[in-house]
Amino acid sequence: MSLPPEKASELKQLIHQQLSKMDVHGRIREILAETIREELAPDQQHLSTEDLIKALRRRGIIDDVMKELNFVTDSVEQELPSSPKQPICFDRQSTLKKSDGTRMADSTTMLSISDPIHMVLIKTDIFGETTLVASYFLEWRSVLGSENGVTSLTVELMGVGTESKVSVGILNMKLEMYPPLNQTLSQEVVNTQLALERQKTAEKERLFLVYAKQWWREYLQIRPSHNSRLVKIFAQDENGINRPVCSYVKPLRAGRLLDTPRQAARFVNVLGYERAPVIGGGGKQEQWCTLLAFLCRNKGDCEDHANLLCSLLLGYGLEAFVCVGTKAKGVPHAWVMTCGTDGTITFWESLTGHRYIHKPTNPDEPPVAEQPKPLYPYRTIGCVFNHQMFLGNCQPSDAVETCVFDLNDESKWKPMSEEAIKSVCAPGATTSLPPFPPLCASTIDASATSNEIEMQLRLLVSEHRKDLGLTTVWEDQLSYLLSPALASYEFERTTSISAGNEEFQDAIRRAVPDGHTFKGFPIHFVYRNARRAFATCLRSPFCEEIICCRGDQVRLAVRVRVFTYPESACAVWIMFACKYRSVL
């Protein structure tokens, strides 16, 4: 690390002032004399640098100098460009600055950090399917009062959902603070702090519950039919704990892993969809997963997808809300809505990545022309919320197509107190969920995975045709020509823009001779199990017709393209194709 000349001279001046202040020169002279007189042999009059350093260290002078050089931390909020010219900065008082994180927080500061450690246990079978086994919030601060900053814990992990009261196992853990704390707290102090926090949390939850009940009574007094609307204030997490729905959403920045809101929508879309398991009848099981549990198992219900997408859109600076309502046939559903600065209302379907512009219709006005049916699948809406706001729909009709989304009009949307929401959902509140984990980059090698799935599909097709008494001839060039189409399909899913199809069609026309017929079948998956994908393809009559093609000079082709996203989510595009000579 090199310093500019002016900074180097400033550093020298700092060291000189410190040495003069502590009279280091005088103490060195004393040590020199003492060392020569007591430690050197009578016949050895030369004092080496090594002898001097040993004497200084033995008497603690080097340690004293280092203790007097104070290091301070500066918390830098914005991202600064790296500058090779000024790697170190100095302030007016000649103290060395370093970036935040170079100094260990003291035990008292650590004790004030109330966020628990969230641990998630998942099970992965031989086919790569994941199952959520347990979700546990560990109170780690007992280590602050343990001797030498080391403690051992035994925790019982409980199941999730309908099995949240069933034990799944015991976990033995050893906690150790690193770097070690300079001073540990007494266990009594730690226990007292935790007890006070529990009391404070219980009181906040009680007050919010009282307020929520009062708000609900006022909402029902507006119109008795409100009782049947989907106004969801609380939701159970994977552990069966009731939490305010606003606590499931927080602004989430994807760093450099996702560049645009539409790419974020595509990422959420390729995460698997799975409804919470139900034991017996009685309808849908209630379970909203915390973000870490959702990302660890890479699949979840529509509410999990909507919460994640809303959090990402908030991170991009959009005014986003989760909407709770119904789809066709009255099926409960959750999706995302953004409000533009020009008043444009956009619906985002988190399960498909589709976007819809909402244009309300006035049911009281006679239509000048027949109103087109809305393209979106939503029928009713009961409430909208994000990390700061909760609003209940109090318009005469809860039909989405007639709703006006002027959220500032309290005659149409009844708001909850933002202060009340903040008391239980704001970052750092002891009742809220811990900070969302940052998204992780994909660990999947897209090219290698694409090749592997493609080779497996070739074997499966060949075996299937062999069972039918058919031979299989693959044409590699035709397979390669399918790649642009798959890239175009994914680009269109991400941006809603179609591009590159003309070049693909022109290449296929050149590759298929006169008198031959070409057929192609693209299909999309969000998993990488080739056998499962092949079985799904065979259920399509058009795809089965290609795989089982009979005719003269039949040539088959298959192309697989894996597009990776954060958290090892992926979009898998497969295209089967064949060309054959038409025989009349």
TrEMBL record:
It is found in: Cytoplasm, Cytoskeleton, Microtubule organizing center, Centrosome, Centriole. InterPro entries: CEP76, CEP76-C2, CEP76_C, CEP76_N, CEPT76/DRC7_peptidase-like_dom, Papain-like_cys_pep_sf. Residues 286-416 form the CEP76/DRC7 peptidase-like domain. One of its GO terms (biological process) is regulation of centriole replication. Residues 443-581 form the Centrosomal protein of 76 kDa C-terminal domain. GO terms for cellular component: centriole. Residues 10-69 form the CEP76 N-terminal domain. It comes from the Eukaryota. Interacts with CCP110 and CEP97. Belongs to the CEP76 family. This is Centrosomal protein of 76 kDa. It comes from Aotus nancymaae.
